[in-house]
Amino acid sequence: MCVGRTVLSVMLDEFFVYLQSFYTCQIGAGRLRSHWRGHNIYVRIVFSKMRSFPGQDLVQKFSGALFWRLVPRGRNASSSKPDIKICIQCPGSVQNLSEVALYCKQTPELMLHARCCLNWKGTILGLDLQNCSLQDPGPYFPQAHTAIIIDLQANPLQGDLANTFHGFTQLQTLILPQDVNCPGGINAWDTVTFYINNQTCQEQRKLCNSTGDSEMCPENGSCAPGGPGLLQCVCAEGFHGYKCMRQGSFSLLMFFGILGSTTLSISILLWGTQRRKAS
Question: 209-218: per-residue pLDDT in tens?
Answer without folding.
Answer: 764 555 678 8
